[in-house]
Specification:
Layout: E1 11-12, E2 21-24, E3 30-33, E4 45-47, E5 52-54, H1 56-66, H2 72-88, H3 94-97, E6 101-105, E7 110-114, H4 117-123, H5 141-148, E8 152-156, H6 160-172, E9 176-180, H7 204-215, E10 220-224, H8 233-238, E11 250-253, H9 258-271, E12 275-281, E13 284-290, H10 306-318, H11 322-334, H12 336-341, H13 343-349, H14 364-383, E14 388-394, E15 399-406
Parallel strand pairs: 5-7, 8-9, 8-11, 9-10, 11-12
Antiparallel strand pairs: 1-6, 2-3, 3-4, 6-7, 12-13, 13-14, 14-15
Helix pairs in contact: 1-4, 6-14, 10-11
Length: 407
C-alpha cells in the first residue's frame, strides 16, 4: 500500500498516465478529469472561476523582492521571469495555461496553479536559507540545502507534534515527511493545534497532510492514519522500496501511548536513526535527543536503563497500578527532575490538586514554543551540529538546562 495516496491528496495534472487532465472553458471554468483508476471516479469535475487560484505571480514577485542582484540565482530567475512576462501577454494561450504545475485539491474542490517546482520551493526557502548553515561554512546556503533537501522526517503524534511538523517543514523544507496518528481532532485540541471547523472529527494525520500540501504540493507526504504499531513501524522508519517511500532520517516521537513510545525507540535504534521527543510541561519545554545514529547501544531513555522501561511497560500492559505505572513511565521518558520542578503543572498533572478538568494540562503558548525549539534542534542535527541529550527551557525563569552529552 502506498501511504502517500491518502484520499484528499492534491492531484497533479499533465501528460503522465497518473495525472489528471484539464480543459479550459470560455466562461473561465476549468474541467478537471481524474486519472484512470483514481478514487475520485471517472466523472469530469467542473471547477468554477471563484475556486481557481493562481500562485505564479505571488511566487515570482516574492522572488523578485528577495534575490540579490548580480548573483547566479538572480540571473537564472530573470530569464524565467522574462519568459513569464511574455506568456502573460497572451493569457488565453495554450503556452501560458500550460506554464507551471496545476493541482486539483479534492478536500474543497479547488484548482490551483503553482510556479515550477524549482521556483516554488526556492520562494519558500529564501528568507532562512543562509541561516541554515553547516559547521564551518556560515551563510553557504547551497551546502545547507545539500543536507536539508534529502531530509525525511517521520513524525508520530499530531497534537503538539503538529506544531513541530509545521515548524520543521517551514524551517527545513525537507523532501518528504511522514505523519502518523490514529486519532481524530476534537475541539479541545484547539488550544494547541491550528485547524478549522472542517477539520474536527477527522483523522489528525490526514488533516496535517492536507495543511502541508496546501502550501507545497511538491512535498512528499506519507500518511499513517492507523497509527504506529509492530506491523507499521518498520516501514514508518525504514521506508518501502516498492512504493518509493524513503527511509526516515529522523523520528519525532510525540505519542502518549507507552507501548508505541517504546516501539518507536526500539525500531529507531535498530535502524540507526536519531529520535527526538519534545514534552510540554506547563510553561516549560523539555527536548530529549537520542542519537541512535551515533551510538546503537544508547538506552531508549536518557539515564534510564532499558530493563527499567520494559518492566514498567509490562506492568502497564497488565493493568497493574495503571495510573502509578503511567506516571513512572512519564518520569522515565521525560525525566523525574524535569516533571517535578514545574510545581503548578505537576500538581494538576499528577492530581495532587483536584480541579474540574481531568485532561492533561497543556498551554498553547508552550506548544508553539515547543514546535519552534524542536524544529531548530531537528534542523541542527541534519546540518551536522552537536546538540545536547536533554534540554529544558523555562521562559518564566529565563533558564536553559542541558544534560548528557553534546554530540
Amino acid at each position: 500500500m502506498d501511504m502517500s495516496l491518502y484520499a484528499n491528496r492534491p492531484r497533479p495534472t499533465g501528460s503522465s498516465p497518473k495525472d489528471g487532465t484539464l480543459a479550459f472553458l470560455p466562461d473561465e471554468s476549468v474541467v478537471f478529469s481524474p486519472a484512470l483508476g483514481d478514487s475520485l471516479g471517472a466523472t469530469p469535475i467542473v471547477v468554477p472561476p471563484e475556486r481557481i487560484h493562481d500562485l505564479v505571480l505571488p511566487t515570482m514577485l516574492g522572488l523578485l523582492e528577495d534575490l540579490t542582484p548580480g548573483s547566479t540565482v538572480i540571473d537564472e530567475f530573470l530569464a524565467e521571469w522574462e519568459r513569464v512576462q511574455v506568456l502573460l501577454g497572451e493569457p488565453e494561450s495554450p503556452a501560458w495555461r500550460a506554464y507551471g504545475e496545476w493541482f486539483y485539491f479534492p478536500a474543497d474542490a479547488r484548482l490551483a496553479r503553482f510556479a515550477p517546482r524549482r521556483w516554488h520551493r526556492l520562494a519558500l526557502q529564501v528568507r532562512n536559507a543562509t541561516l541554515m548553515a553547516v559547521p564551518g561554512l556560515p551563510h553557504d546556503w547551497a551546502a545547507g540545502r545539500a543536507r536539508l533537501d534529502p531530509a525525511v522526517l517521520a513524525i508520530a503524534g499530531c497534537s503538539v507534534g503538529s506544531n513541530v511538523l509545521h515548524s520543521s517543514t517551514m524551517l527545513m523544507r525537507p523532501s518528504h515527511v511522514k505523519v502518523a496518528d490514529v486519532k481524530d481532532y476534537n475541539l479541545n485540541n484547539g488550544n494547541r493545534v491550528r485547524f478549522t471547523y472542517r477539520d474536527l472529527g477527522r483523522n489528525k494525520a490526514q488533516v496535517c497532510a492536507e495543511q502541508l500540501h496546501a502550501i507545497d504540493p511538491f512535498l512528499g507526504v506519507s500518511v499513517y492514519d492507523t497509527g504506529i504499531d509492530a506491523q507499521t513501524v518498520e516501514r514508518f522508519i525504514g521506508g518501502d522500496p516498492t512504493s518509493g517511500e524513503p527511509a526516515a532520517t529522523l523520528v519525532l516521537e510525540e505519542t502518549d501511548d507507552p507501548p508505541v513510545k517504546v516501539c518507536l525507540r526500539q525500531a529507531a535504534r535498530a535502524a540507526r536513526v536519531p529520535l527526538v521527543m519534545v514534552t510540554d510541561l506547563g510553561r516549560v519545554v523539555s527536548i530529549d535527543v537520542r542519537r541512535f545514529d551515533l551510538d546503537a547501544k544508547l538506552p531508549m531513555c536518557h539515564e534510564v536503563p532499558d530493563d527499567v522501561v520494559l518492566a514498567l511497560l509490562e506492568q502497564y500492559q497488565r493493568g497493574t497500578g495503571e495510573r502509578e505505572v503511567f506516571i513512572e513511565m512519564a518520569y522515565a521518558f521525560s525525566g523525574r527532575d524535569e516533571v517535578v520542578a514545574v510545581t503548578d503543572f505537576r500538581e494538576v498533572a499528577l492530581r495532587e490538586v483536584l480541579t474540574p478538568f481531568a485532561g492533561f494540562p497543556q498551554l498553547g503558548s508552550t506548544a508553539g514554543m515547543a514546535g519552534g525549539l524542536a524544529a531548530w534542534i531537528i534542523s541542527q542535527i541534519h546540518l551536522g551540529h552537536p546538540v545536547w541529550e536533554r534540554m529544558t527551557f523555562d521562559p518564566m525563569r529565563a533558564t536553559v538546562t542541558c544534560k548528557g552529552k553534546c554530540q
